[in-house]
Amino acid sequence: MNAFVRLCAMMILATMVAGAPAATASASTSTPGHRATATHVGSTAKITVQAIAPEAMQAMPAADPVLVGAGDIAGCASAGDEATAALLDTITGTVFTLGDNAYPSGTAQQFADCYGSSWGRHKARTRPATGNHDYVTAGAAAYFDYFGVAAGEPGKGYYSYNLGAWHIVVLNSNCWAVGGCETNSAQYRWLVADLAANPVTCTLAYWHHPRFSSGPHGNSTAVLPFWQALYAAGADVVLNGHDHDYERFAPQTPDALADPVLGMRQFVVGSGGYSHYATGQPVANSEVRNSNTYGVLKLTLHPASYDWLFVPEAGKTFSDSGSAVCHSVVMPYRASLPLVSMAPLYSFKGTKIEATTPLAKYKTADALNRVVRPTVPPNRLARPWPHNDSNALAAW
Questions:
Q1: 182-186: long-range contacts (C-beta < 8 A, 24 or more apart)?
Q2: Residue 93: pLDDT band by 50, 70, 90 thresholds?
């Protein structure tokens, strides 16, 4: 309550500054349980504090959810994870991890002593992903034991959840440990089914190994099927770790073609605190890189858009921020279409989409559903309508 009183006093000062001596000025604010109005008339200032009924408080709009975290986090010989855990202390929301949570071997002792003493204090609000160092302990057993049900089914490590209006997908890129990541794998089939069952406006996915990276590990082809399925479904954001740096990419296709309208934006956030890796020659579509700052990525998930902010450790100045809208806002039919190839309708020609069938007779999404093929060839991914082809758009 003292903080609330100080806020009211600041409001009076603000109204006195805003109004001339004989003017009338007012301002209002609220905190949980109270609303205050400060009025300045001439030389007289007054504060009115009104209690807010519980039912009225429930009707007040909630803040949009925050998803915050990093990967490549904790080692008992490193102070970096303490620095990033201190950042989490000041940021509310759901915490994500991008794998390699406890170095060097993901043992129960390392989870308890190294991870537990820093990021562990946020365990109750954490939704983790597993990395290759977690699998140095057979089956990542200590990882699954430490995080419990929050890590998904033991032995799988892939799961999904909803956060506000967003659907969040967590995958296991340690493909060798879970029966593969290919299109015939159990994990891929689960992913396609999960996306089809959750046709929301905004989708985000995260796992450990990045499809694209300017760091020493470079691009991973093993996770290409993940990208193909997510891109076909209209997902918006991908988060990864593995390379111990921070890198942001422009929206792109699974094959690294720039796609500012429907491409997925990838962040590498291997800045959790264990160590730094130097980045090399920037790969295609890389926009921002940093290799000497520990920090966390904070994502504010609005119903149809998102904001990103890289928050650096204390004493460092590097940061990165921006905003973007979700694909389904731009492409209203996307959520109603299946995860199948649209090759009978049009195909990719570099960065352009070329119509291969007149679209005039396909006036509805249902009509389109009846003509598409139930496969996803690597270079012909599902799209709701040919956004880059003006003739096809006119026909639509």
A1: 182/225, 183/225, 183/228, 183/376, 185/225
A2: very high
